[in-house]
Amino acid sequence: MAEGQPSDFYSGSQLLLPLAVKVGVPIDQLNFLLGQVISLIIGYGFRKILPASRDSATSRHIAEVVIGGLLTYFCFSYQILHLVAQGALCYLILILAPKQHMHVICMVVILGYLAVLHIYRMTYAYMIWEMDISGPVMISTQKLTSLAFSYHDGTVKKEESLSKDQKEEAIRRLPSILEFSSYILSFHLVLVGPMCLYHDYIAFIEGDNKTREGIVAEMPSDVWLNKTLITLACFFVMMVILPIFPTDIFTEDEFLGYNVVGRMFYMLVSVSLVRYKYYFAWYLGELVNNAAGLAFNGYDQHGNKQWDLVNNVIIWDVECGNSMRLMVNGWNTKTALWLRRVVYERVSPAYNTWMVYLVTSIWHGFYPGYYLAFFTAALFTLTARSVRRNCRSFFISNTYLAFFYDCITFTFTRFCNVYMAMPFTVLKFVPTLGVYMTLYFWLHILSILGLVILPGKTRQQAQKQT
Predict the structure, then answer these.
(1) Alpha carbons 278 and 330: distance in angstroms, whole number
(2) Catalytic residue among 61, 103, 199, 364
(3) φ, ψ dihedrals at 210, nearest 5°
(4) What is the pLDDT of residue 216?
């Protein structure tokens, strides 16, 4: 197969295939990039020609559906029907299912639909890395399930039983079919997201996301420039530096030729560079949403305007955070928000961490590497909490000891990050275990020892967490 040529599995437009072959870029990636560039241009016009207000809400909804539908069809052709079918299932559940249980039924059915799609892809395109509709369906799964929980909060639960966030995000009436379709097919959200809560999306459409001065906020040019430069820098790293340190060698003899320290440091570099593919996609998605006017997120504690409503990553926390919590919370932040709203806050504290990682594993798919990665992440998360709870107090009383503690946690966080993410690059079960064996499972062993040796939470600490 010539470089740029798609497999039989890819159903998107072939219009740019000659260009894709000529420049050596896969047609699915070229279509995606063009779709995002078109969205960026249209987004600017959308913001200027159809400014947010309640009077123009219907026109804005129609524009979102039509443009989003056309872009999705360009990239994925008939597979757009999966978005339509999944959305229709959710809407019917919200109308017909018992009100007390509609949110749980929706979660099971919508996540189940995505799971079937993942299995279908694995069956017919195993280990073939082409973009298909499963990406947008992953985003719509987050939207639909979060909408169902918010609708349940707003129509079934008592006001006093809701948290502050749940009260703000509660949906008091069933969205119209146009509003619902606009939320699912929004042209600046549909291809790569990120997930935007329905409460925030409707405020954006109707112009309710105003500043204290009573106007719809426009993102300053310096914020635009900063995001654009970061996007270009991530693109450079992805295209130029990442190929120098391929992850393919993890399962090859070349990797085994290094000693264990060399293997760990090579993994530290190569897996860290892989993250820049995600940074690029997410920052480009931010720019697209910001062009359409979706950015303002209120004020921080100092009264400064925030422009991070659809930010999906905090690069500094991921790359330089000195704790698992900072690192995990900085990565794929809208997925983390979704998991917190529909899983972590809804189940017993005794097993909510494990449930979060189980649901996110299913959401990602069924390659064994995902489950090894998230099992490892859950183990590291619990150990990190135990270490912080039992050890941090011995260091914070002295400046030098506190600095030493921060250096140790920073170093371990860097290694834990790539160690638990490595299965995402290998995906297969036996090869992934083989890579861990070459590293002697050292971080797994340390984590298990930490959980066994360090005291667990007291009853008072457990109650405080809840």
Answers:
(1) 13
(2) 364
(3) -95, 160
(4) 66
Tell me if residue 332 is catalytic: yes
Name the pTM for this structure.
0.91
In sequence order, what are the residues at sequence separation of 6 or more whose Cβ sits closer than 8 angstroms to the Cβ of residue 436?
Answer: 422, 444
What element of type H or E holds 35?
helix 27-49
From the list 312, 332, 352, 417, the catalytic residue is 332
Q: How many residues does the chain have?
A: 466
Per-residue tokens: 245? 């340190």
Give the mean pLDDT per block of 10 residues along the chain (466 residues).
62 90 89 94 92 85 97 95 97 96 96 96 83 94 97 93 92 96 96 93 85 67 91 95 94 88 95 96 94 86 84 94 90 94 91 90 94 93 91 88 92 95 94 95 95 71 46
What would the two tokens of residue 34 be? 């063009």
Give yes or no: 61 in active site: no
pLDDT at 220: 84
